[in-house]
Amino acid sequence: MAAAENDREAPSALCNEFLNFSAKDTAAKWLLASNLHKEVYQHLACYVPKIYCLGPNLNPQNEDLLAPLLLQSPLEWYLCGEEPSVGLAKLEQNNQPSQLCGHVFKVGEPTYSCRECAADPTCVLCMQCFLGSVHKEHRYRMTTSGGGGFCDCGDTEAWKKGPYCQKHEPNNNDSSQKDPLANMTEEMIARTYNVFSIILKYAVDMLTWDKEDELPEGLEPPVRGDTYYCMLFNDEVHTYEQVIYTLQKAVNCTQKEAVSFATTVDRDGRKSVRFGDFQFCEQAKSVIVRNTSRQTKPLRVEVMHSSVVAHQCFALKALTWLGQIIRYSDALRRILCQVGLQRGPEGENSSLVDTLMLCDSKMWKGARNVYHQLFMSSLLMDSKYKKLFAIQFAKNYERLQSDYVKDDHDREFSVTDLSVQMFTVPSLARMLITEENLMTTIIRTFVDHLRHRDLQGRFQFERYTAQQAFKFRRVQSLIGDLKYVLISRPTEWTDQLREKYLEGFDAFLELLKCMQGMDPVVRQVGQHIEMEPEWEAAFTLQMKLTHIISMMQEWCASDEKVLIEAYKKCLSALTHCHSGFTDGEQPITLCMCGHSVDTIRYCVSQEKVSIHLPVSRLLAGLHALLSTTEVAYRFPEQLPLSELSPPMLIEHPLRCLVLCAQVHAGMWRRNGFSLVNQIYYYHNVKCRVEMFDKDLIMLQAGASMMDPNHFLMIVLSRFELYHIFSSADCRKRYSRENAHKDVVQQNNTLIEEMLHLVIMIVGERYTAGVGQVESSDETRREIVHQLCIRPMAHSELVKALPENENKETGMERVIDSVALFKKPGVTGRGLYKLRPECAKMFNLYFHHYSRADQSKAEEAQRKIKRQNGEDSVLPPPVLPRFCPLFASLVNILQCDVLLGILGAVLQWAMEHSGGHWSESMLQRVLHLIGMGLVEEQQHLLSSADDNDTNFNFTLKISRPGEAPANTPSILALLETLQNAPHLEVHKDMIRWILKTVANIKTTRECTASAPPSDSSGHSQEETVRDKDKAERKRKAEMARLRREKIMAQMSEMQRHFINENKELFQQSLEELDPSTSSTLEHSPSSCDSALVCVGPRRWRAGGSERRQMVTCILCQEEQEIRTDGKAMVLAAFVQRSTVMSKNRKRPPHNPDKYDPLFMHPDLSFGTHTGSCGHIMHSHCWQRYFEAVQAKEQRRQQRLRVHTSYDVENGEFLCPLCECLSNTVIPLLPLTKTSCSSEQPDLSQWLSITSQQMKALLSAHRKAADAEGVDAMDGVNDCPPPDGFRLDYTPKNPYSSTIKEMLTTFGTATYKVGLKVHPNEQDPRVPIMCWGSCAYTIQCIERLLVDEEKPLFGSLPCRQDDCLSSLTRFGSACWTVSSHTTVQNHFIRLLAALVPDPRVENTPCVLDIDMFHLLVSLVLSHPAVLCLDSSGLSADAAQLHFLHLVTVAHIVQILLTSVPEEMRMEQEGGGAEREEEENACMLYNTLRTHLGSGLHEVSSGWHLWRCVKAGILPYLRAAALFFHYLNGAPAPPELHTLGAGELEALCGYLCLPSNLLQLYYNNRELMEPLLHGWCSHPGVLQGLQSSVALIRFPRESNRLIELPGDYSALINQASSFTCPKSGGDKSRAPTLCLVCGAMLCSQSYCCQTELEGEDVGACTAHTFACGAGVGIFLRVRESQVLFLAGKTKGCFYAPPYLDDYGETDQGLRRGNPLHLCQERYRKVQKLWRQHSITEEIGHAQEANQTLVGIDWQHL
Ligand SMILES: [Zn+2]
Ligand SMILES: [Zn+2]
Ligand SMILES: [Zn+2]
Ligand SMILES: [Zn+2]
Ligand SMILES: [Zn+2]
Ligand SMILES: [Zn+2]
Ligand SMILES: [Zn+2]
């Protein structure tokens, strides 16, 4: 590394030279130069290597300072001819900026598009422009930018309306036409031209330079050292891990450095990983190459000379500089464009811009980004040059795409990505099509890249390699380009455009021809297929092309000439396809019902068949479009229809539909899932528009041109059903065909499918061109049928409707006419419900229903009808009329073959048993008959005027069947069936048919045009019983139909059921739970005084009231809670908490050294205990837990999966409610105390206690001495007071199991609270238990305030039980600890109140949370009291503690009170005069102790107000504590909200309502204490320090405020940069909802080490901010994230909703989102009540995939 050392010295040596440099002089020299190019190059050759790349680490500070000074400044001087700042300002002033906003988007920045006005969805606005635009009030879409692209504000072509925002509104005179150069002097133009051409050339040369050790001519450095860089380049093949691992090996760096290298390589595209002499770098290179070449191609590494790297660095800088300088003036920008596009010496495509584009794939990411940015801010911003650039881009298109396909970088880093900026501009797109033949170029380029064909020239994706798959993925972006070009349809056509479009159409047909018939399948018989064939690639292609195909048709539709030409071309393409493959088809003749037709022999079940028929389908689309034209109506003979061969048209679509039918019938089971998937997508909303729908249209088109009998015979033949219906005695199927049962079943399904197809061919008329409808009618009908299934949310409807290329469904225009919107509540989402009057449009055989949809819709519709008291029959709806070209289709209904089929099925149905017909089959037949009748009614209605009625369905069905069978007519059959007992289900339909027939007959008879009466009338004779029976039968039938589906959903439903009912289950249990019986509360008091909870006068429970019976949830045995009984425990969850923290900046404590005895009033870390309230025997629980442990061990060994709970950490799920738990709390009875009379008053008691303390202290010290621990001298031997037996060891009253459980819970609290290993001997165990008790009570107190609930009586039972057992446990936990330890704790605690010089490290009153102190004192005191035999009572002591702590708290409040605001009026002053004066006096006493430390206050009113407000939370917490400790019921005033709370609390706590009397009544005693507190040095320090004091009352913490509009958050996140990787955009910005910190989540750059593991930013933050629990908002995803620890997490619905009452997780829909306060409060409540971890547990139990996520990396 010697070289490096030397070089670092260089800059300082050169400093002088730099200082003497004058940019002005240099520029002046250049002005005189004859060869400016040479001069500038010399300058660069000299200076660039002196500034850039001088050491291993680049030194940006130096460069940023020196480069402008030495390199850019002379250029600017030269350009301006004067001081640059002056010159540039002048330029800016003269500039008339164009009206384009052109703001370039950052990654993740919000973009807005108007669904109503944008020319296409790529037209977007930046946030600023959007807010100033008219579209704000429109229906808009909000997305986040992927980076790149710019704001289209001001582009009149991008917006149909409102192209300008307020800011970019052009001022009246039209400046856009003026030449921007007009304002500039000739000289300046010339100078600018010179500079730009030299610098741009330099930059282009350097960035495209591929020699590692040489420089271009004229740039060779004066001195050349042996300094090299080992440069590592980015690729998308190697993973982060591979790169990091390799680097550690190759250049001996730490893992951290390697991560940083890898991150930079990924971001910038390259990074030097070693600097030094050539040898040194070469060595690293070889290691890297060797290590990465094994599986894939090696990482790209180059050893480059430092001067080359330096010039490349400056070249990037120079491009950035160009981008900056052209911002001053449009004139500069135009000159730069001119320079860039000027043709170079090599002729065509040799300009600098061309050179850059053509080298794009060779450059590294960073370089590409910089020059793409420059293109965007120059070429694409200049109207004239944008066009010229677009032409160059189009000329190079094929080459650029080929480079891109070979390259491995993402498209956003490729120059090809700029296509969207040009191709979406309609005028440019049109120009490129006509002048550069762009359409043809794109399509040809695309086809060229898909080279895998079969013998017939069709695409073949089978057996294609990963390499080809990769290429296939990349080449798909060409389809995107084609889409851009086609997205706006021309309003006017020129002959040239027609010519070029049709040329493109030809190319497109070539593409489709390669797809026609691809991926053919053959039915597998015998064995199951061995390997699932590849099918996805072909479908991907189809899916990607779907919109293109639709757009092609729309272009054709906009010009009649083009349409007819395109139609001809398509037809000849189809003919060509058909001639291509003849699968040995033999001609045959079919005869039926006196008709005959010639066709070929072909069986779908035996020969090849393909789902891909894009050419046929395109023709079908064009045919429907032709049908809408004027020509079709007036002169159909002019259409090229004569060339059509209808049988040829229908052949392939029919085969495809038969294939679907056969798959449904189970005939293709052995072909595996790939076929099932293909059929699924064929019908799926994403594909069906250009697949299934068009096949249907093709059949309609073909059938409309054929004799309906012929058509149906061919259909029967392809369905392989011809033999069934053609035989003379087909009506006796049951007797004849007793073949295999499976075959009969199969044929039944095929007949059903065939009938359904006929229904669809005649009935589907909602495509414009087929029926006389508009596209909005089609959408409306689609919506109606979705809503007939059930009410749906907006997003569900959107998903069910096909989207066009603009991602619009047309739903908004029509939804209100067919549906009503219902708003959501706190959960769920808004729903659309069908308008009742639209139900009549319902068609049971709607072609887009799946079988499941159909049965659901049928059930729902019948139910509604019944509820309305109507007949539940669902007759076919009235349909729109066919267009003339399709008009003949109605004749299918009355043709002989169909009537024959209908008659046959009805005849079969006469027979009850046999399985030779099915309910569905019959239902379809009845539906078809119904359709015929409805059609006839319509004809009668419309033909009333023109008197032309050749549609006479009733006549046809009244005629008896053909001879020889001489069978009954259809009508006769129906009349017979009407009474068949086995057909109850269909009776209502048959009845409806017969009635309608009667109606029609009457209409026909009265030649007058009396309209038929409503056909759904009720006949009286039918009995209710009949109907019921029919109903039951129908239900059975439905059940049969749904069985399959139900089976599939079974497991899903089970889980759902359990989840739904768990809550119910739990609730009812809580009601019954004996432990929650409220016998303890409200019972009459038995002792002397009423409703006091502390002190000698407190309420005492009688013997019977103390008995408490509970039931174990595991063994169901009842058990009494007794000190000496079997231990009963409560499932509990202990967690660390920062919910109440007032100081999130406090660093976490060192768990090994931290002394938790005193809680700081900032409550920064607490230990919270919660419980689900379920009770077990301790031994039952132990057995259960052991079983869980064992099961978990087995499971982990076998499956290696995580569970939602961590058994090794003692976690388990409550056996009843599955609530997450990690320990158990023992249940204890109330402690027995007797009302002892005479007790010492406070001063006596204090003196006794201090004597006791002295004795204890000296005894403890003596013991320590004896053990040889450092002895303390000067401690006098203090004699203990009377009755105080130092050597006494009290008997533990608890049974062994209770003792065990006391230890268990204590240890768990200690372990979790301090994050340490369990150690039951640790002296901090009892402290943690008391702390958890105090903290939990404080939390609950806050929660009750926040929820505006009264202190008592509103807690759920489980919390009530939890607090009560937690408190009683607290009072008992000393019994299992070392008594000496607890006594010592007590001594130290007391010293904080009664200063004691012998006790050290006592905190000052400002640093103590008084409630914690109170709880600890009360709970530790028994360890001292037990030594006393003189009759001191615990009750008296508790009261004394309460008094002392309360006074201390009042002092604390006064010390920290905020100075009074400037306000004069004192409402209500005087009513509490005494208190106010007392407060004032006490405050002044404090001032005498502290002097200037306290500000002056004159108003006692203000002070008393502070005290009252400040002390309330403490009193409330104390009331809860003593309530649970002593079991005293609370007075009724505390069961309600309202005034007088303070008085009620004081009464209950045995305190005077003037709290200051506590001080004044014992003034002599208190004065020294006060003095002691104030003289603690900490007090003055605290008051004077700049750190904010904790003031009282402490406000409840809330989650941060969120903005009302979600895009404000997106905007905030988009300007957030990763804090670790220097200004880089963060990929997953995530907001902590607790503290508002924005984090760079889910990314390597921000991983940190936590307890020896690498964790993501969120997990790391969670530990600091939430003590392990975190609540985040993932901004890009619009998703709430809950984290707990390192392994647990779940996603939660965000509190943002769109106008349809739905969330948008993943921001996929892009509807504007607004904050829903109610939902946000729900999240806040979960947090405040410490339920986040529990919520995660439930989420993970419900959704196992959540368990597998690596939460710690978020
Ligand atoms: Zn803008
Ligand atoms: Zn604007
Ligand atoms: Zn708009
Ligand atoms: Zn039990
Ligand atoms: Zn439970
Ligand atoms: Zn936070
Ligand atoms: Zn980061």
UniProtKB/TrEMBL annotation:
Any one GO CC term of the record: ubiquitin ligase complex
UniProt pathway: Protein modification; protein ubiquitination
UBR-type domain boundaries: 99-170
Subcellular localization: Chromosome; Nucleus
GO molecular-function term, one example from the UniProt record: zinc ion binding
Keyword Cell inner membrane applies: no
Gene3D superfamilies tied to this protein: 2.10.110.30, 3.30.1390.10, E3 ubiquitin-protein ligase
Disordered: annotated segments: 1004-1036
Keywords: Acetylation, Chromosome, Coiled coil, Isopeptide bond, Metal-binding, Nucleus, Phosphoprotein, Transferase, Ubl conjugation, Ubl conjugation pathway, Zinc, Zinc-finger
Family matches, as PROSITE patterns: ZF_UBR
Superkingdom of origin organism: Eukaryota
Ranges annotated as UBR-type zinc finger: 99-170
InterPro entries: ClpS_core, E3_ELL-like, E3_ligase_UBR-like_C, Ribosomal_bL12_C/ClpS-like, UBR-box_UBR2, UBR1-like, UBR1-like_WH, WH_DNA-bd_sf
Family: Belongs to the E3 ubiquitin-protein ligase UBR1-like family.
Function of the protein: Ubiquitin ligase protein which is a component of the N-end rule pathway. Recognizes and binds to proteins bearing specific N-terminal residues that are destabilizing according to the N-end rule, leading to their ubiquitination and subsequent degradation.
Protein name per its UniProtKB record: E3 ubiquitin-protein ligase
Gene: LOC113113046
